[in-house]
Every structure is written in C-alpha cells, then in structure tokens.
Amino acid sequence: MKLYDFTQAPNPRRVRIFLAEKDIKVPVVQVDIAKQEHRTDAFANINPLQRLPVLELDDGTCIAESVAICRYFEEVQPEPPLFGNDPVDKALVEMWQRRIEMNLLAVVAAGFRHTNPYFAKMEEQVQAWGEQNLRNVGTQFAWLNDVLADREFIAGDHYTIADITALCGTDFAKVIKMRPMEDDNLPHLKRWYQAVSSRPSAKA
Amino acid sequence: MKLYDFTQAPNPRRVRIFLAEKDIKVPVVQVDIAKQEHRTDAFANINPLQRLPVLELDDGTCIAESVAICRYFEEVQPEPPLFGNDPVDKALVEMWQRRIEMNLLAVVAAGFRHTNPYFAKMEEQVQAWGEQNLRNVGTQFAWLNDVLADREFIAGDHYTIADITALCGTDFAKVIKMRPMEDDNLPHLKRWYQAVSSRPSAKA
Predict the structure, then answer these.
(1) Structural domains present in chain A
(2) Which of A65, A183, B44, B136 would suit a FRET pair with B104, their CA atoms being 20 to 30 Å apart?
C-alpha cells in the first residue's frame, strides 16, 4: 500500500490528518505538483484525472478522492470513528463535511486557482470567477464562526472528518493572504481552530 | 419523517431515485424554488443554507445534502447496498460518486446557473465562468462515455449511487439543450443510459 501525496496541497493533508487520528502509518510517495509530476503518463495510470491524493492498494487498485480514501480506512479500522457513530450522526457528519468542502474549501481554492499567476500555465483561469470567490471567503468564514457558536466541533460534540476539512480549508486560506483563525471578530472559529490545530494530527 | 423536495431540480431527484431503489416511501413536501419558497424564513429554519432536498426526522433533526440523506437511508436499510459492499468497493463507489458530481453534475449546473437569465435575479452570475463550463460539458460526457467502455455501471458491475448522480446529471443537461444520451458518438453512455433510465426508479 502507498499514498501518493504532495505536502503543500490541502487535499492530501486531509488524508494525512485522518490517518494520524487513526494512528495508521502508510508509506508515502511525493508527487510534486509544482514540477507537474501529476501530469505525467505514469501518474495518469494511477489516476486518469491526474489529481492528488491517491491510495494504491497492494493489488494495484487505486482509490482517488480524499474522502473516498478516508472512507476506506474508516471501514478497515472503525476506531476512532471519524464519519459518525449511528445513522443520524453519520448523515449529519456527511452533511457538514460536504458543506465545509463546498462552501469553504472550494471557495478558497477557486479564489486562489483562478487569480494566482502560478496556475495560469496549468489551467484556463476565469479571473471574474476567482474574484467573486475571493470576495465570498470572508462571508464563508463568518458563517463557519456562527456554526461553531453552539458546539465544540463542526458536526457536534465530537471531532470528525468535517473538522479535518475545515482545518485544511482554514490553513489553506493563507495562500490568499487571509488568517481567519487570528480574527478577534470570529471568536468561535478562533477557539475551535486552537483546539483542532493543537491536536498532534494537525502536524501531519 | 418528511422530505422537502422540488420535482424539477436535479438534486432532490437523486434522493427520490435512491428511495425508489430501496422501496422506501417518505411523505414529501414540495418547496417551489421558482416561487422562491426556499428563501423564506420558515425554510431557513429547516436548512439555513436554503437548499433542497432536506430530510426532517420525527424528532425535528434536519439532514440536508442529497448524499447525506441517502447515507442515512443506507444505514437504516442496507439492502440493496447502493454505497458499495466492502471497504474497497465502498471507497470506489464514493470516488465515482464524487467524480461524477464534481466533473459532470456541477459542470452542467454551473453552465446553467451562470448563463441562464432565470437565475440572474437569484444569484450573482459570472457569465465567463458559465460559458467555460458550457464549453466543457461535451468533454465531460465524452469522459463518462470512456469510463463506461469496460463496465456495466459507473463504479463497476453493480448499480450504485454513482449511477443515480450520473443519470440526474445527464437528464439535467437538457436544460442547456444537450442530449448526450442520444449521441451516437457516445455508444457506451447511450447503452448505460438506456439501462439505468429504464429502471422503475428513474421515474421517481
């Protein structure tokens, strides 16, 4: 088994944190996106969509998509549960993980990818779309702050994959020069960020 | 229990098809997006993000996000399994469901929402982003056709939630005047579409 990873990208980090929470060790292969190593024919055999991360099993099966890789490990090692405990809890964790992914991580990513010159050579940018997302980022972090007003973690009273996605999204905002975790106007977000970023897994 | 639904929208249909495949009946409440009924304060109490579908349980718990609602029903009634059978299969179904959602359904939706005058009053459109997505739709259906070249269903040899998302995405393309399911250059997609759209659940 091996995990195709790129240390600087937010999505592979989601899997690394998930594995650290489960105390699972997996050999890692670095694929340098900056050097376009994900655009090679060799990597296209691992993931035709040429994205990271990818988990390759010993029989050659390749699982792409961060959440799908996490799901695999949740199934083979259920403890500690990071996708929820019972049918309602599992559904609510999935709801929150998706909301955070689409309304926070994707907004930061679109703002970054569609405006930063670094990506101009890699994809067809739409500047106006990037700018709209950049304008929305503040609203989205204010929303997350409100979500956290009445609960310890994003999906309720226990740490889940939704917190992992939110932590990676919050740290990723540094690339667009935003530091919501230091904003005194977002006290609930700040309290939550201090708790989740001080867990040993956050260093993964 | 009740399901907040809008018959004409693609996401609620995903849940209706899923329920039909499981032979589960749930009372339905129509929320007319065209009349902006999802923008009322009453509906904001059900889903603060004001999106459909939402499942309200008897204790008042509200589960939003199509896939999260489907997950709930998979947990309370596992048969027939629509999220996969074992850890590897579950991970691959999740991978395919996400790929189809982001690379097909989201592309059609962005093309529609950011270019159609109908949405101009409801959200801040970015015409160039809509047009880029409209240009990509053909490529994405060609990709789906290639995916289906060596398998009966999207995630392998059995029908799953990934097929439901793809069916809803393919039918939804009619709103942007595309009918990939009738395109003789996409024979695998056509064969798959005939199979999944002739299941009784497709009428849901």
Answers:
(1) 2-76 (3.40.30.10), 87-203 (1.20.1050.10)
(2) B44
